[in-house]
Every structure is written in structure tokens, then in C-alpha cells.
Write a structure and sequence with these properties.
Blueprint (H helix, E strand, L loop, with lengths): L13 E7 L6 H9 L6 E8 L5 H11 L3 E6 L4 H11 L4 E4 L5 E2 L3 H11 L3 E11 L17 H10 L10 E3 H6 L11 H9 L4 E13 L5 H4 L1 H19 L18 H5 L4 H13 L3 H5 L2 H10 L7 H10 L3 H11 L3
Helix pairs in contact: 7-9, 9-11, 11-13, 13-15, 14-15
InterPro entries: Glyco_trans_2-like, Nucleotide-diphossugar_trans
Protein name: Glycosyltransferase
Keywords: Transferase
């Protein structure tokens, strides 16, 4: 038996859940950082979601050298389906998320397992991160650190602050299963929707320690699908507000979200669509992809609805730099009330 390996007749303390799609570029480093953890009582589920690169081969090579790895190689079904499959197949009571482009520091699992063992009223614990670029160099990010206590979480939910770094999270599997796991309707922000639902049934926390290196690069999902992610996130917050106020949550059983124009009727409350457009606008001002896709039309309508104009004239200049003079002209006209 290899060091840290589980015997076949015992269940591990922890299941590590990683979904990969065409992740050959950073995969070996990510997997290596898991196998190097000081806490070794885990099974490592690595799901290849129909990759067309060398991902499957890399996974099989690692699995041949460490029997804690359980490879799952199948056709593409998308991230939400993959995360729910990993949650279903996890044998341990605790699940640690990990992405194929990030790097864990050696004591991450030990510190998070110890926290959950000492705090049975908490169902989720994350940690702070080092932000890095595609070369592993520091990535400057001007944002507050994530909340440490559950009270801070609730404050950030109400005031729009950060919550958790998804690949840095460890949670109790039974609690996540009890709320239905990840919801397909919230593609590209499925984690945010999950935290907002869990906040009503358990406590969440972050260790104020940087135990993961979180990578930023142009090809990651949050960069390529910025508009859809921001729309989903804004609707997830509206769903939380509905639940918090004791109103029905129409997203509870949804498999897809309606267009923004239908949100007032969908939630049975006026002003939802306007708030969503405003939230999306604030989230895409610096996204070249979103400014070139349907995000621009959402922003334009938000301005016409009387939404905040903070940063809008700089966005006009940004559109010109992106080679979008017609969009810059349309935004200028909307700002001038023409």
C-alpha cells in the first residue's frame, strides 16, 4: 500500500472531486499538488468530461501510479452534470473541490478537515487564495479577502461581497445532497447558487489562510462566458431574496432560466429585471467578451432604464479601444438621452 493510501475495506475520510475538460495544460501540476497533501486519507475522483486533448491519458497515467485515484472517462455532458456525478459517486462524508488549473498548498486538506471536525455546525469551509497567472506568477487583484465567519457571509450576501473560491472548498456531502446539489439552470455560476441555498441550512466559513493558488488566464470559463455568468449570478441573488423574504423561489426546480424581459413575471414582483440588468452591467464593464456580445445590449437597456452610470464614459473609451465604434456611439447616445 502506498503512503496515505486507503485499504479496500475502509471508507476514506475525504473524497476529492475534480472535473476536467481539455485540461492537459495545467492538469499534471494540479493533480501533483493533491497527491502531495500532508493529509492522505482520501480518494481522488477525476472525471474527464469528454476531452479531445491528452487529458484522459494524463489521468490514466497518474491512476496507474496511485490507487487513490478513481478515473472516470466518459463523453461530454457539461460541468454541472459532472459535478453532480462526482457528488453522487463520492464515498466519503467530506468532499473537497479542486479544478484542473489550480494548485493546492500541502496543508490545505489537513487544515480544512480539522476545521470541519471541530465545527460540526458548519457544512462548508473554504480558504483564501494566492492569485496567479498562466505562468504561475502573481496576478494582481483589487478585491477584499473572502469572509471568514458565517455572519460575514450573510453580510456579503446582502451587500454583494465575495463568498467562496469554488476549487478551494470542502463540504459535507450529505448537506449538499440534501439541497439537490448543483442546479443546471445556473450554468457558469452553479457554485454561487449552491452557496446561497446552503446559507439557509448550514454555516459557511473560510480559513484566513492562503491554501490554494488560483489561476487566472484568458481561456478560463469565467472569461469566455462572462455575460451568461453575470446574468445567472444576478438571478441567483434574486432567488435568494425571494427565499429570504418567504416568497416562492421559481428557480427551485428550473432547468433553465427565462430571458431577462420575463423576470418580473417569473418572480411575481416588479423591478427584478431592472435590478438584474443593473447587476450584470456592473459585472461586465471590464470584460471585452461581454462588451462584444449580448452583454452590451443588457448594459444599454440598463442605462435607458435609469440605472447607474458609474464608469460608463470610461466604457465608451474602452469600446473605442476594442474597435467597436458603433457600440461606443450607441452607448454615448444612451448616456446623452438621445
Amino acid at each position: 500500500m502506498q503512503p496515505g493510501e486507503n485499504s479496500s475495506d475502509s471508507l476514506p475520510t475525504l473524497s476529492v472531486a475534480m472535473s476536467v475538460y481539455n485540461g492537459e495544460r495545467f492538469l499534471a501540476e494540479a493533480v501533483g499538488s493533491i497527491l502531495a497533501q500532508s493529509f492522505g486519507d482520501f480518494e481522488f475522483l477525476i472525471l474527464d468530461d469528454g476531452s479531445s486533448d491528452r487529458t484522459a491519458g494524463i489521468i490514466r497515467d497518474f491512476a496507474a501510479r496511485d490507487s487513490r485515484i478513481r478515473p472516470i472517462i466518459r463523453e461530454n455532458r457539461g460541468l454541472v452534470a459532472s459535478l453532480n456525478q462526482l457528488l453522487t459517486e463520492a464515498r466519503a462524508p467530506l468532499v473537497a473541490r479542486m479544478d484542473a488549473d489550480d494548485v493546492c498548498l500541502p496543508d490545505r486538506f489537513a487544515r480544512q478537515v480539522a476545521f470541519l471536525e471541530a465545527n460540526p455546525d458548519h457544512g462548508v469551509v473554504g480558504c483564501w487564495s494566492y492569485d496567479i497567472d498562466e505562468k504561475g506568477e502573481p496576478w494582481r487583484i483589487d478585491a477584499a479577502d473572502h469572509p471568514v465567519t458565517h455572519a460575514d457571509f450573510l453580510h456579503n450576501i446582502r451587500h454583494g461581497g465575495p463568498l467562496l473560491v469554488h476549487p478551494a472548498v470542502m463540504y459535507r456531502a450529505d448537506i449538499v445532497r440534501s439541497v439537490g446539489g448543483y442546479h443546471a439552470a445556473f450554468r457558469h455560476c452553479e457554485d454561487l447558487d449552491l452557496w446561497l441555498r446552503l446559507a439557509s441550512v448550514t454555516k459557511l466559513a473560510n480559513l484566513p489562510e492562503r491554501l490554494i493558488r488560483y489561476r487566472h488566464y484568458p481561456e478560463q470559463v469565467s472569461k469566455r462566458h462572462a455575460t451568461e455568468q453575470q446574468v445567472g449570478a444576478a438571478i441567483a441573488y434574486e432567488a435568494w431574496r425571494a427565499r429570504d423574504a418567504g416568497r416562492p423561489d421559481p428557480t427551485a426546480e428550473a432547468t433553465a432560466l427565462p430571458p431577462i424581459t420575463q423576470l418580473d413575471e417569473y418572480f411575481g414582483q416588479e423591478g427584478v429585471a431592472r435590478r438584474v440588468r443593473q447587476a450584470v452591467t456592473g459585472g461586465i464593464l471590464h470584460s471585452p467578451v461581454a462588451l462584444r456580445d449580448e452583454g452590451f445590449d443588457i448594459m444599454l437597456q440598463s442605462v435607458r432604464d435609469g440605472g447607474s452610470r458609474s464608469g460608463m464614459w470610461r466604457t465608451v473609451a474602452r469600446l473605442l479601444k476594442l474597435g467597436e465604434p458603433l457600440r461606443a456611439l450607441r452607448l454615448t447616445a444612451a448616456l446623452a438621452g438621445i
